[in-house]
Amino acid sequence: MKLETPNPEIPFYQACDDEIAVFEHAWKNRLPLLIKGPTGCGKTRFIAHMAARLNLPLYTVACHDDLTAADLVGRHLIGDGQTVWCDGPLTRAVREGGICYLDEVVEARKDTTVVLHPLADDRRILPIDRTGELLEAPASFMLVVSYNPGYQNLLKGMKPSTRQRFVSLRFDFPTPEREQAILISESGCSEDVARRLVGIAQALRTLKDQDLEEAASTRLLVYAATLMREGMDPVVACRASIVESLTDDPEVADALMEVVSATF
Ligand code: ADP
Hints:
Layout: H1 19-28, E1 33-36, H2 43-53, E2 58-62, H3 69-73, E3 74-79, E4 82-87, H4 89-96, E5 99-103, H5 110-113, H6 117-120, E6 125-128, E7 133-136, E8 142-147, H7 160-163, E9 167-170, H8 176-187, H9 191-205, H10 218-229, H11 234-246, H12 250-263
Helix pairs in contact: 8-9, 8-10, 9-10, 9-12, 10-11, 11-12
């Protein structure tokens, strides 16, 4: 299969649909983007690829429930008896006209994400209360957020008023052919190994919802392929990188290992 990115400066990204065109149009039209999809399916890689492709600085923030607005916007720091203002990643991205990517945005509290609102609608401004500044985002600035709908609970879902400020893309695991191309490109494994690993993932993904909280991700397959390329026994590699990452339950692990043993 043809690789998407021959340019070594741009992180490899195997497109799965029309996501590159949607991203480019959203960016050109100054619209923020929301990406939803399971863990390890290529969301972060996609943003890194697009930032490099558009030649924009990228600031990534992994959100969690202790994240504060100051972590995003900035704070005064004390050093050498002086107080110095230090921009947070959101402010830096706005000043430089880059991309600010908030991963797992639903993990952040509402009083933190409220700073995103005036940036996400057509005002495109960032008020910095502590310095009295009001930054207007340059045309090239883009806000991108992602979340995994599988992790969501009712309390944590995004408010409709927030969601409706974003252009939204749904990501899922790639088709078998594309996933094989990703494994070969990422790990340098053979076509045969890639085909077998993707076969295992397909079989394990059908078990999702019954025994497993999360489906086997492309990321885990890349790990397995990488260990095997170094000469590790395929069954040992699949246990360590796929099976033990998916479950703590020894019985479920045994059941998953049966799929592995039937393949290698
Ligand atoms: P997410 O952000 O969705 O949790 P990542 O973007 O970090 O997932 O993807 C995990 C890994 O899987 C990447 O580092 C890369 O090796 C591989 N990967 C997944 N999807 C793709 C893709 N479409 N193109 C290239 N690599 C991919």
